[in-house]
Amino acid sequence: MTRGFTLPAHRLSHLSGRVAIPTLPGQTRPPATGNLLEAFNTAPAEEAHRALLTCLGSRHWARRVAAHRPYPTLDALLAASDEAAYDLTAGDLAEALAGEPLPALPADAYGAAHMALDAAHAAYEARFGHAFVLYLGDTPPEETLDHTLEAIRSRLANDPEKEREVTAEELRRLARGRLVTCLTDPRP
Question: Which domain range does residue 130 map to?
Answer without folding.
Answer: 13-184
